[in-house]
Design a protein that fits this description.
The model has no long low-confidence stretch (mean pLDDT about 80). The chain is about 65% helix and about 0% strand. It has helices spanning about 1-35, 40-60, 65-85. One of its GO terms (cellular component) is proton-transporting ATP synthase complex.
């Protein structure tokens, strides 16, 4: 009988300890991930994206695009304007939707 009580208490103690350990390990993992430095590959990737962003802002468009790119872009825009009509094809179109007018039906 005493053995059963000891086993029951030990199982309760084990479950309480396991819950506390899981909580502490989970919390430690979150804290570790926030304070951890970036992976070198991730850091390099982010540095390249930031570098491209600054170059793009300085150039006012695509980076390292030569005169051939601009010539092809102008030809493509002219071809699209001939096919689809007038308008500025370098800007996103603005859509205007009107609210439908509903009439109440007599009951």
């Amino acid at each position: 009988m005493i053995l059963r009580q000891i086993l029951r208490l030990s199982s309760l103690f084990r479950s309480a300890v396991s819950v506390q350990l899981r909580r502490n390990i989970g919390l430690s993992a979150i804290i570790f991930n926030k304070t951890k430095e970036l992976d070198p590959v991730q850091k390099l990737f982010l540095d390249k994206i930031r570098e491209y962003n600054t170059k793009s802002k300085q150039a006012g468009g695509p980076v390292d695009a030569g005169p051939e790119f601009q010539k092809e872009m102008n030809e493509s825009l002219a071809r699209l304007q001939r096919a689809y009509g007038e308008g500025d094809l370098t800007k996103f179109p603005e859509f205007k939707f009107e609210e439908p007018k509903f009439e109440e039906a007599p009951k």
